[in-house]
Amino acid sequence: MQNATAATAVPDAGASQALALTRACTALWVATLSLMTAFMQTGAPAHRYLIARRIAKNLTMLREQEAVFGAESRMIFSNLAQRWSAKADALAPREPSSGGMGLLQRAFAKPH
Question: Who's near 64: CB < 8 A, 6+ residues apart?
């Protein structure tokens, strides 16, 4: 009887890891939803680009978690990741056509 009590007192390492992974995925999903809110409230194109890129990466990471999510959820994450990646691509900074220098480089190049 003493061995049975000792065995139940120590959590299974596999179950503990699965629980930790589930919690991490839940936290990542909540953070991704927060980023989506931030994206909608941010007007600066450079910030929107960075936020959209991070959302796409987070969704890709969630899609890869076969142990936590079923096939349908992973497919939804995949579709969302593609949409957010396309949104980020549309917001990606473009190189200016005048000599290839960015605005910041031009600002530093000006004599003060």
Answer: 74
15-30 pLDDT, tens digit per residue, is 999 999 999 999 999 9
The type of residue at 58 is N
How long, in residues, is the chain?
Answer: 112
Q: Quote the distance between the C-alpha of residue 11 and its chain's center.
A: 31
Residues near 46 by beta carbon (within 8 Å), at least 6 away in sequence: 93
Give pTM, 2 decimals.
0.74
In the numeric block, which tokens belong to residue 32?
């991704």
Reduce the secondary structure of the chain to three states and give it as a string: CHHHHHHHHCCCHHHHHHHHHHHHHHHHHHHHHHHHHHHHHCCCHHHHHHHHHHHHHHHHHHHCCCCCCCHHHHHHHHHHHHHHHHHHHHHCCCCCCCCCCCHHHHHHHCCC
Tell me which residue of 12, 13, 18, 14 sits closest to 67, measured CA to CA.
18
Residue 52 CA to residue 5 CA, distance in Å, equals: 50
